[in-house]
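Researcher: Go.
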Amino acid sequence: MQKTLLAASVALALSATAYAAPTFTPGTYKAEAAGIHGPVAVEVTFSKDKIEKIAVVSQKETPGIGTLAVDALPEKMVAVQSPKVDAVAGATITSNAIRTAVEACVKQAGVDPATLVPLALKKAAREETLTTDVVIVGGGGAGMSATIRTRMNGLDAVLVEKMPFIGGAASISGGQVVAQGSKLQKAFGVKDDSVESMMKDFLANGNNLNDREKLRLYAENVGATIDWLHDDVGVKIVPNNLPFLAEYSHRRAVEFQGGAGKMAEHLRQVIGSNGAKVLYNTKVEELLVENGAVVGVKAVDANSGVTYTIRAKKTLLTTGGYGNNKSMLTPEMQKVLYYGPVSSTGDGLKMAQGLGAKTQLLQYGKRYPNGIEVAPGKAKSTIYANVGAFDQAGILVNVEGKRFVNEKASNRHILEPMLKNSNGQGYVFMDQKSWEGFYKRAPETGVSHEDMDKYLANDGKSAPLFVKGATIEEVAKKAGINAENLKATVAKYNGFVKAKKDTDFGRPVEYMKAEIAAEGPYYIVEQKPRFATTMGGVCTDDHLNIIREDGKVIPNLYAAGELVGGVMGDDSPAGANVGWALTSGRVAADAIAEALGKK
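Model: Structure:
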């Protein structure tokens, strides 16, 4: 008995020690840690026994993604009196930077951060019922477009997003968007493009597997959508710019000013002021069905614990794809590096399938040839960095040190020969000016200069492979590439530049303006297949009403964006996915408005 009491006393003492209130050295302390695009600096103010205030005082994180952690975590940390809070979904690196910096401030205040056990915050479990004209599930490109258009059509809208921000895959896309038939395309100098021409190009790129009815719907509506976004919504487009894209017979893509992130940020601002109700951190758990018709959704707020019953006249699923759910991918696609949003887990697809929705092309995903492996199984894109290199004298080679493709070909026509290389990948080889072009444009797709400096400093010792050498022999050895073949390849390419003709692969002469420099330094960067966008999904009619396996529509249930399968076939051309998202969101909103007598 005495031993038992002694043990209990010791345990109680240890428990009291573990949970004793901290004693801080009062004051304000500052620290920083590395985020995605540079240092994240915080200031933390302490009284003797409490964290009084946490502020992020400087950062360069992605608006609407990394900045969500900046906005949310300081308040949560103060609430629980500890830096030990969950990361914001989709902004893990920024979240970790904030936590690390706050922990450093705690140490400066004289306390071991490991002893700061988070206070338990009681969630008030309650239920709430909302009634609306339209509930839109998913806040990516299609969801944002549909929400804005629904409000412009005079209907009430509730947008439900499981992430703490809206933007989805559209906000991290390449920044180009199909604009066939738009006033802008004509104003920028292309007046002879057509619906039929666009369809022909998409069918060729998609291996003729496209859902032709949906493709025609896209081609007939994308121009009006881009003009609506520009003229009525205020999205800014780079003027007089129709970039060359190998997939297209006409120059039919425009570019968002400031890239896709800036476009998404603007749409967020419009939604924030147009009267739509937006529920963040709220996941739709099920579709509500009465007498065979969808009458709304049930959703749960992950932060507050509130369960929402949202009754709606029409329900629009814009939940994106399923690329981040390996159980829904083929074995072949499971092996490809993923670079898309963490939210693409197939939620809407599974809910629609639960009601008997017909699907198509679920086995396909859009693969790109220009990824770097930044973490096991995870990629980032160098697509525009490559453009910067190829505008100079950059070339693509395989591990044998030989060119294998026209560097200015379409993504599909670069990927296919790349997959046939002995290790299934390629490498960008660059002289100094080509590297400068690569370096300048890399941040456009989320590879910061700080990232590249770090990768290059690793010098091939860890992934991703970024190496530099004073000579071709030195850089090739670091990359594991055949040096003698690479030297011969460089000499041969320079001969093509002099002759103004690439007799091996037909690289356009306008992208062969400079020979590869005779002296180093030289650089090599890995190129691995990556994917984010799934090509398959639900089938719909031309009003984007979801169809069942028996060919009948599911009453009141619509879909838009990546969730709708088949538009692209087995592969999507440049600027097409974000264009489809924005276009189908608008088309679905108009179809719903018409069904409700508002158009």
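Model: The first strand starts at residue 27 and ends at 34.
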